[in-house]
Amino acid sequence: MPDHLFDKWNEIAGRVGRAKSVRLFLDFDGTLVAIRRSPEGVTFSRRMRQVLDRLSSHRRVTAVIVSGRRRGTLQRFVRLPPVQYWGLYGWERGPVRRLPRAAVWELSRVRASLVAGLRDRPGVRVEDKGMSVSVHTRGASRRTARQAHDLLARTLRDCSHLYVLPGSRVWEVLPRQIPGKGAAIREAVQRLRSPFLPIYVGDDTTDEPAFELLDRGITVKVGAKGGDTHARYWLASPAEVRGFIERLEGELQ
Predict the structure, then answer these.
(1) What is this structure's pTM?
(2) In this predicted model, what pLDDT tens digit does every residue of 7-18 receive, in sequence order?
(3) Cα separation of the two ends of the chain
(4) Which of 99, 169, 181, 230 is a plausible cystine mate for 212, CB 3.0–4.6 Å?
């Protein structure tokens, strides 16, 4: 069971104080903002923007937001130039990347099938991200969510270029060229030559590969205490994440 981060602050402060460089990886939904039924309904608070702006501008810190959302959407919500934005689970990090034709065709067919098949399911929402498609069930009953999952499974039965990445009350249909946050973090870390302290904060099952990869760093699961996680510490909510960022800034003075 992970420890509450603030209960181990002396240990955290010591590691931060000794680090010549800090790489701070932050999930978005459920970590920097509270989860809402509609992805567009979230609010990035003024206070969170202020503290993240100060921290990301520090000479020893590189701040990265890594999310299942598209990169442009993250930039629109956060609006902080010093921050790096990694969309689509870290695959979308800079110049536009293209998918193979076969994957694009399969994704188009699956998207149309899901939109048609789930149109009248209460509490189910199909989100088209262009390079992926999400099925949200946060407002659905268990029975309806199960029906949505069954349709998704049938739709993907003959698709060789796509896979499903499960999250918190959401299933994301992705091309196999977009492997998830763990692969993105591994690729980025392998390119770095100077030593650094990695800090990763996230709330979802999609963050678990990154927690596991960065097991020598400071890994933080946001949400209820306990649970099955590879993270070493936990925080209860985005409000506590903001408090952590404020404390982190204080240790870097």
Answers:
(1) 0.94
(2) 999 999 999 999
(3) 32
(4) 230
